[in-house]
Amino acid sequence: SDDSIEQRVSTVGRVGPHLEVKIVDPATGLTLPRGEAGELCTRGYSVMLGYWENPEKTSEAIDAARWMHTGDIGVMDTDGYVAITGRIKDMVIRGGENIYPREIEEFLFTHPDILDAQVIGVPDEKYGEELMVWIRMREGALELDADSVRAFCTGKLAHYKIPKYVHVVDEFPMTVTGKIRKIEMREQSLDLIGQG
């Protein structure tokens, strides 16, 4: 393959034959230029036509032009390589800005004391949503507080991407199959910020 190592490990590859892909703005449905993050949509003979005997779910996923809306946030580069960067349902809208938690989580992984980080949106009267990060610390590291996390982010992330709330935990709530339960984190977070 002519794909570089970087392209092979950081993307899902290029669009295959007999398949169309576009990246759209989740709010407007308009096709976005290459390099911009939005919802990954696909259509072609190998793409499902709908959910078996479930027209409601089908109409949520497949539009009139037969584009399947995957719910994935993706970016297509100028060479046609697609990277999946998150899920629409995890996107946070703060003051009109679409924020993709994975970008912030990946930045926080560069902190030497952070083992894992999960960013979620919590309700906010002024901005609609605010960012909250749940953090697991590395063994032996001193616990971080909101001020130290904000200081680490300042100048490296856009101001609206800096988490307002920080919650340090030993473990994240998990499903029996080992997936992080962000729904449970959001519910617990309401109590933590005094809105529960």
UniProtKB/TrEMBL annotation:
Record keyword Ligase present: yes
Magnesium keyword on record: no
GO biological process: fatty acid metabolic process
Gene3D superfamilies per record: 3.30.300.30, N-terminal domain of ligase-like
Pfam families: AMP-binding, AMP-binding_C
GO MF term list: medium-chain fatty acid-CoA ligase activity
Residue ranges of every copy of the AMP-binding enzyme C-terminal domain listed in the record: 103-179
Coiled-coil stretches noted in the UniProt entry, renumbered to this chain: none
Residue ranges of domain AMP-dependent synthetase/ligase in the record: 6-52
Source organism, top-level taxon: Bacteria
Keywords assigned by UniProt, alphabetized: Ligase
Leader peptide range in chain numbering: none
Entry's family note: Belongs to the ATP-dependent AMP-binding enzyme family.
Name of the protein this chain belongs to: Fatty-acyl-CoA synthase
Source organism of this protein record: Rhodococcus maanshanensis
